[in-house]
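Chain A, query sequence.
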Amino acid sequence: MFKLWASIKKDLLLLTRDKVGLLLMFAMPIVLAILIAAIQNNTFKIVNDNKVSLSIYNNDSGAISKQFVSAIKDAGMFNLNEFNKQFNGKDIVAEMKETDALVTILIPANFSSQIENKSKVLSAMVFKDLGLGGDSVETNKSTVDPITLYYSPVLQATFRQSINGAIRSSLQVIENKQLIKNLYTLVDENKSSSTLEDGILNSQIKINEIAASRNGARNIPNATQHNIPAWTIFAMFFIVISLGSSVVKEKLNGSFVRLKTLPSSYVISLISKQITYLSVTLLQVAVIFTIGIYLFPLMGLPELNLPSDLSALFVVSVICGWCAVSYAICLGVFSQTQEQANGLGAVSIVIFAAIGGLLVPSFAMPDSFSVVMKLSPLHWCLESYYGLFLEGGKLKDILMSIIPLLGITFALQLISFWGLKRKNLI
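Chain A, predicted structure.
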């Protein structure tokens, strides 16, 4: 026990002298967690809370076009600016740059009359199909000139589709109103259709949104819940810079040979390194999670909500940290120089993060990556944390993520031991 404690003290001393390694292990992931959580949280706000700047150029003076503008305003998604003047496409592009409008709608002339004519044609077709007459309107006069939608090139396709859906919904509202009005006109010109309009247009089926969590919680996961676990894992595995270099340094300076002449063994040194750096990974978890709980709300970011099963959170953190330590030692054993350990370690962690779902969500990856993704230890770490943070699971619920992670860890330990034996270092 004394030999182990002495070896741990030695590793702690070496660790505190490695200023760059400490900076990479703590400062870098903290900055990344804050920046990316802030950026993603702002994106969520743009999509969910903030209104999109929308300009409408109405070349039509009819009542239906005004109803259309009112329906877009009622959608609640847009910050509306209406201009009742003639514009062509070139003028609109220049105007959008000056006003910073993300979207602009150009309503064509005769829009109201064309919509009204279209509804009359459809009403007549309904009555004709029912055998009630009504064939006085020619169907070839029901064409409506298209509405032109200009959008900023910075808008992504999915966001444009959401905007398109809101505008189409508003257009459908006024078309339905006009159709109902004309159907009533064909039946009885003096009868009001407001009751039926309200019944049809305001009786949409509601959609309840519930996060599919195991504990029944209905809190929708936010940017913090996604990013804090992800960048904590990234921080854990970046100890490869410090630990991998330490293993290589001891190989190069003859520490392995000297240990053979002493009443000790390198196995004790390996155990001490694992204990020391596992403690460091747990400290990283504590620091980054604390920032998410206490600092994020002060910065206007969502607070990190810890899972209900704290014991499972500790177990997952220990296993993830142990896997990170095992990978760093394995890399140090097979690297010939410190430069190799640092370069290969940094690049490999970024690659593992990319294919493991930290940089790009796993559901957004192509099907061809499904097998490669499961080879990344960071993927199983992330799945374990997400099972606790996002799904409200307990330890038994995430065993299918923990077991592969333990398998990778044991494999790394065996490979490291085999490498040391092969080089006659132990």
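The first helix runs from residue 2 to 17. The domain at 52-201 is CATH 3.40.190 (D-Maltodextrin-Binding Protein; domain 2).
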